[in-house]
Structure formats: structure tokens, C-alpha cells
Specification:
By secondary structure, this protein is mainly β. It is built from five helices and 33 strands. Strands 20, 23, 25, 27, 28, 29 and 31 form a seven-stranded mixed sheet that branches. Copper (II) ion binds next to loops. The site of copper (II) ion (CU) has 5 residues, from loops. Pfam families: Cu-oxidase (PF00394), Cu-oxidase_2 (PF07731), Cu-oxidase_3 (PF07732).
């Protein structure tokens, strides 16, 4: 394994090398209007100049995969072609999508076999920063690189000089610089914090130097694509404003301040507005500060002055998407008790219809449960009439944080440990700390079968998932 020390040394060594972020490729579009998205083996220079290329699984030959961009409300058509040695599927994370296009094998579609293809065709109702990723054996397929950005453009673009994508991943590489395959399925990872890596990248590059100009106004789109790492960034000396979370604009822009930190759990996104007031020649680190010591994962280098840049002008406001507000007067109340994992108190749970002891569960690779059930069931957690408002409490009785994701819907966080916190943000993935209760609310307005699961992918695989069904009758 690459040790943390060598990771640090490599980061420092590469900091002066002017490693540019890879050029962003837009997905190629066929004559029939479909974006072509091939999932298959690829190679990438994750280690930069520090080591050999790394063999990956990737969309369109690179990780992150090509950018898919579409206009809000217009059709998105993508032809997934599977050139992998195993079945796959693609999920469009955060899109309030038609159920048949959600990409969940066994729930919304069959897996796409090697050599097979699947046509995804959907309307993206909300503008914002989204992403696509494998949803079959995602704990392995995503760790090997199968994800990419999905950008839905506002009808009127936000006034900014440039847009910059920062797609963050946390790879676990062996001493040979290759994806550490021996630890796939490690029960230790599955029962603890998930597969944490030892090599952080931005846009598939090690410590990239992102070039900016004084006077520019930048829109940054950040996506945490890691399997399990909660990333906390310190954007030193930059003072960006948070304008959207999980794709959805905030009602009020939020300062993170000059020493402020921004936490992104796995699958979460943030849109930031950054006015560059650096002097030419200034270099500012992007630090990941979850550990005791900050680690530089990239930097901004000011390499000139923008003529007529927008920095300092009046702050623009993103138009809000049209999400239905939950009616809290008589909602359907659902509780989701989260149990299991290392240092947990779970003694047994139902798996495949049978009550199993913790020892038997471990033998099945199932160590987490929701409401006493590990993994999927034939019967949903709830059948909900379309249009019904739902108040759902995540009750985390484990010793670990979990990034809980609801498919097909965005929700408001109403309370933490019973204390009201609604700040107007809409999320599709929310971090629930150890022993915390988080209450969320949403309108179940999207018919179909939808997953709720932890986006620490090892937790999902080891039992922390369930589903609900929204029936077609109006509520
Ligand atoms: Cu989890």
C-alpha cells in the first residue's frame, strides 16, 4: 500500500510541477442524439509523474468520465455500452428521474451484461450539479473509477467568467500504483467506515494546479465521488460562497469564510462562487483537513489578470428549482432505525426472510440493518400515495456516520436530534452522525420504486439499504 507518508511526500513533490487538470471532455453525441457512454477498462495517470499508469474501469476511457451537459427540462439520452468483464448499470444521482431510468438493477432494470447496452432517456427537471455512476457492485465498480459529472444548465446561465469542475476521489492503491483489488469485499472495511483510500485526486489528477486569473468570477462545481471518505476542504484564503448543495440552489448564499471549511459526504455536491482577488504568482492550497494534519490535494495558481472580469460585482442569484414543499400538517411518518457495524449493539437481523444471529449475518457479509432488516426485501418499507408528504427520521444507533441517500426525490432536513434546523437547503444525500437522529421531509411525488441507502458503498453492500414505492394514484 502507498503509505500516508509517501502520499504526503508525493503531494509536496508534485506541488511544484505544474500538473494541469485534465482537459474536460464533453461526452460524444451520436447522430441520433444519444450521448455515447462506454464502460470499459482504461488507464490513467493517477500518480502523475510519481508512478506508472493505473488500470481502471472508466466511462469513455477516463475517470472521471466525460461531462454530460444538458439544458434543464430537455431530454437527456445516453447509450450505455458495457465493455466491462461483468454486468453493470448507470444511476443518475440526484435527478428526480422517471423510475425506469434510475439505473438500479433488480428494482428498476435488469443489469446490462458484458457486450450489452442500455438506452437511458429522461428529462432532468432541475438545473444543477449532478453525477452519474455505476449502481451494480458499486463498491467495486466505483472504486475502480466508474463515475462522471452530469451538469444540468439553467435556462439563464449564472453570470460568471468561467466554470470549473472539481471531482474528488479517494483511491486505494497498492505499492504498484494499481487499484488494491485484494481488499475488495474486506469485512473490516464493510463493518467499519467503508473503503477509505490512500490517494486523493481532483479530476483524476494528483494535486493539480488549477489556473485562475485575478478579477475572475468562477463557478466551482464540487463532487465527492469517493466510496466512503467524508471530505472536508479548507479553501484557504479564497472565501468562496456556497450557492447550491446537491444540485439545488440555496435560498440564501452562504459564506464559508476565509478559514471556513466545506464538508462533502460521499455523493454530496456543492456549487461555489469564487471571486479571485489573488495577485499574479499567488498559489493557494486546497487542503483536505479531515485528519490531524491538512493534506494538499490541489491548488489554485493565479497566473494573470482577467480583463473585465466579473469579480466584485453584485452577487448573482441562482433561480430555485420548482420542488414541492412538504405539507407538515399531517405527513406520513416513517422511522428508519440504523443498526450494526463494528462497536454496535446489533445482535440479530432479518436477512432473506430469516432472522439471523450476528455471527450468521457476518458469514453472509451483512453487518448493517435498517429497522432490523439487512439488505433488500420483497415488500417495501412503505407504499406511499403519490403526492403524500413524508417525514422520515434517520435514527443512527451505530458508532459510524452514514451518508443517507434517497433516490428520485430531494428532501429538506427539518431537525437534528429533535432540534429544528431547516435552512431551506434541499438535499439528496445527508450525513447522519453516529448516534444522531436526523429528520427529513419530502413530497413523495415521483411514482415508482426508490432506494434509500447509505452512500458509503460498503455499508450499502453490507445491508444498509431499503426501498419505498410511490403509487400512481394522486394523494
Ligand atoms: Cu453508512
Amino acid at each position: 500500500m502507498v503509505k500516508r507518508r509517501s502520499f504526503l511526500a508525493a503531494s509536496v513533490a508534485s506541488a511544484g510541477l505544474m500538473i494541469a487538470a485534465p482537459f474536460w471532455r464533453l461526452a460524444a453525441q451520436n447522430d441520433d442524439g444519444f450521448f455515447d457512454l462506454e464502460a470499459g477498462p482504461a488507464r490513467a495517470s493517477l500518480l502523475g509523474t510519481e508512478g506508472p499508469p493505473t488500470a481502471l474501469w472508466a466511462y469513455g476511457g477516463s475517470s472521471p468520465g466525460p461531462v454530460i451537459r444538458a439544458r434543464q427540462g430537455e431530454p437527456v439520452q445516453v447509450r450505455l455500452r458495457n465493455n466491462l468483464p461483468e454486468p453493470t448499470s448507470t444511476h443518475w444521482h440526484g435527478i428526480r428521474i422517471a423510475n425506469a431510468m434510475d439505473g438500479v438493477p433488480g428494482l428498476t432494470q435488469e443489469v446490462v451484461p458484458p457486450g450489452g447496452s442500455f438506452d437511458y432517456s429522461f428529462i432532468a427537471p432541475d438545473a444543477g450539479t449532478y453525477w452519474y455512476h455505476s449502481h451494480n457492485k458499486s463498491w467495486e465498480q466505483m472504486a475502480r473509477g466508474l463515475y462522471g459529472p452530469l451538469i444540468i444548465e439553467e435556462h439563464d446561465p449564472l453570470p460568471a467568467d468561467r466554470e470549473m469542475l472539481l471531482v474528488i476521489d479517494d483511491w486505494r492503491l497498492g505499492e504498484d500504483g494499481q487499484v488494491h483489488a485484494e481488499s475488495f469485499g474486506s469485512l473490516r472495511d464493510w463493518s467499519h467506515g467503508g473503503r477509505l483510500g490512500n490517494w486523493l485526486t481532483i479530476n483524476g489528477a494528483s494535486a493539480p494546479q488549477l489556473e485562475v486569473k485575478r478579477g475572475e468570477r468562477l463557478r466551482l462545481r464540487l463532487i465527492n465521488c469517493a466510496n466512503a471518505r467524508i471530505v472536508t476542504l479548507k479553501l484557504d484564503q479564497l472565501a468562496p460562497l456556497v450557492i447550491a448543495l446537491d444540485g439545488q440552489p440555496l435560498p440564501e448564499v452562504r459564506e464559508i469564510g476565509f478559514s471556513g471549511r466545506l464538508t462533502l459526504a460521499p455523493a454530496q455536491r456543492a456549487d461555489l462562487l469564487l471571486d479571485v482577488f489573488l495577485e499574479p504568482g499567488d498559489r493557494v492550497q486546497i487542503l483536505e483537513v479531515t485528519g490531524q494534519e491538512g493534506v494538499e490535494i490541489g491548488s489554485f495558481l493565479c497566473n494573470g489578470v482577467a480583463a473585465d472580469g466579473m469579480a466584485g460585482r453584485e452577487m448573482p442569484r441562482l433561480p430555485t428549482n420548482n420542488l414541492p414543499r412538504p405539507d407538515l400538517s399531517d405527513p406520513l411518518k416513517l422511522d428508519l432505525v440504523m443498526e450494526g457495524g463494528a462497536m454496535g449493539a446489533m445482535r440479530s437481523a432479518v436477512f432473506d426472510g430469516r432472522e439471523l444471529s450476528i455471527r450468521e449475518l457476518v458469514a453472509e457479509g451483512q453487518v448493517w440493518a435498517l429497522n432490523g432488516v439487512a439488505g433488500m426485501t420483497d415488500i417495501p418499507l412503505a407504499r406511499i400515495q403519490r403526492g403524500r408528504s413524508v417525514v422520515l427520521e434517520f435514527d443512527n444507533q451505530t458508532a459510524w456516520p452514514h451518508a443517507m441517500h434517497i433516490h428520485g426525490h430531494h428532501f429538506r432536513v427539518m431537525a437534528r436530534n429533535g432540534q429544528p434546523v431547516d435552512n431551506g437547503a434541499w438535499r439528496d444525500t445527508e450525513l447522519v452522525a453516529a448516534n444522531e437522529k436526523v429528520t427529513v421531509a419530502f413530497v413523495a411525488d415521483n411514482p415508482g420504486k426508490w432506494l434509500i441507502h447509505c452512500h458509503m458503498l460498503e455499508h450499502q453492500a453490507a445491508g444498509m439499504k431499503t426501498w419505498f414505492q410511490v403509487t400512481r394514484q394522486a394523494g
